[in-house]
Write a structure and sequence with these properties.
By secondary structure, the protein is an alpha/beta fold. Strands 3-2-1-4-5 form a 5-stranded mixed β-sheet, with helices on both faces. Strands 8-7-6-9-10 form a 5-stranded mixed β-sheet, sandwiched between helices. Strand 7 and strand 8 form a beta hairpin. Helix 5 packs antiparallel against helix 8 and helix 6 crosses helix 8. It starts with a strand and ends in a 14-residue tail after the last helix. It binds 5'-O-[(R)-(carboxyoxy)(hydroxy)phosphoryl]adenosine and zinc ion (ZN).
């Protein structure tokens, strides 16, 4: 059974075809990074307009790559043989962006006479580490999932394929957002996560004493604005009106700050994920979202897991940042559980 997935929650327009919730037949992502880079962040109006321009060609390409359509560039009015449902992320995200994917999905579901499935974008990130594995998802649960993306840092308990419960969340800047802001403070370009990851390899994570925010010994919530502000103070001094010293910092000092910041974030992510696995009593941890690409997080969490006999599964880098394969994969399980949506489905920001 194959599902067409659609993603448009932020600045990637994506479509994918996934068979049986785990075999990816196609995954097409049209990124808008180039459109937003000069503004240093996503501009919602520009994102919505770009989604409108790209959604049909992206869906057509996903069908063609999966071998379900003969031509790329346009979507036919007749249902392609081999698609059983359409899954779309209708929340959370930029509402103007979500609206484009939701409208496209509803239109195709109506025109093609197929069931429509709504998924939560963050639940899909939690599921994404199970895509493309030899073992079926049923064999990988129960688990705790850490979702570390641009907009969210959350811990989930996945009891089974449709019972996904949030057990921890971020109370201020998400991990990815903090990476992007620290990269902006260090003038490293956008998006900043990969830049910090690269530069940090040259730095000493102990050169600067940066804070770790635990929010109490039992808390599974996250806060990264403190460490971001600590980096800001190192670069500006305490006086925010003073000019940034970043131009006068040599590459070594910037690398030390990047390494110190990354180490502080990773230590908290690893500590709370282990605490969650311990508290829920599971032996497996899934990690998804853009920051799951981070090399320091991958090695620290993998070795901490090995020490404790926990299996840690990271999403493939292709499914870490926003994509539609994760929606099609999770949507398949919603479909099997009879959880379909009506054509009155709304796009929801929160
Ligand atoms: O999951 P995603 O596409 O966004 C949301 O759904 O919000 O993740 C994008 C985020 C950006 O903040 C980006 O800087 C971060 O993931 N990111 C990284 C790395 N690669 C991407 N952060 C740290 N290290 C990386 N290697
Ligand atoms: Zn995302």
């Amino acid at each position: 059974m194959s599902v067409l997935g659609i993603e448009s929650s932020c600045d990637e327009t994506a479509a994918a075809v996934v068979a049986d919730g785990r075999r990816v037949l196609s995954s097409v992502v049209a990124t808008q990074v180039d459109l937003h880079a000069r503004y240093g962040g996503v501009v919602p109006e520009i994102a919505s307009r770009a989604h409108i321009q790209r959604i049909n060609p992206v869906v057509a390409e996903a069908l063609a790559v999966a071998g379900l359509a003969t031509s790329t560039g346009s979507v036919r009015a007749a249902a392609p043989r081999g698609i059983d449902a359409i899954a779309v992320a209708n929340r959370p995200g930029l509402v103007g962006s979500l609206l484009i994917g939701v409208t496209a999905a509803k239109t195709l579901a109506w025109a093609w006479g197929l069931p429509l499935v709504a998924v939560d974008h963050i639940h899909s990130h939690a599921y994404s580490a199970m895509i493309g594995r030899e073992r079926p998802p049923e064999a990988l649960l129960p688990a705790v999932a850490l979702v570390v993306s641009g907009g969210h840092t959350s811990l989930y308990h996945l009891a089974d394929l449709v019972r996904i419960e949030r057990i921890g969340r971020c109370i201020d800047d998400a991990a990815g957002e903090a990476f992007d802001k620290v990269a902006a403070i260090l003038k490293l370009g956008y998006p900043g996560g990969p830049e910090i990851d690269r530069l940090a390899r040259e730095g000493d994570p102990r050169a600067f004493d940066l804070p770790r925010s635990w929010l109490g010994p039992d808390s599974l919530d996250f806060s990264f604005s403190g460490v971001k502000t600590a980096v800001l103070y190192q670069v500006h001094g305490q006086d925010m009106n003073a000019p940034s010293r970043v131009e006068r910092m040599d590459r070594r000092a910037k690398a030390d700050l990047a390494a110190g910041f990354q180490a502080a974030v990773v230590e908290v992510l690893v500590g709370k994920t282990l605490l969650a696995a311990d508290r829920i009593g599971v032996r497996r941890v899934l990690v998804g979202g853009g920051v799951a690409c981070n090399s320091a997080l991958r090695s620290a969490l993998t070795s901490a897991g090995q020490e404790r006999g926990l299996e840690v599964l990271f999403a493939d880098p292709a499914y870490c940042t926003d994509n539609a394969a994760m929606h099609a994969a999770l949507g398949y399980h919603h479909l099997r559980a009879g959880r379909t949506a009506g054509l009155d489905l709304a796009a929801v920001a929160g």
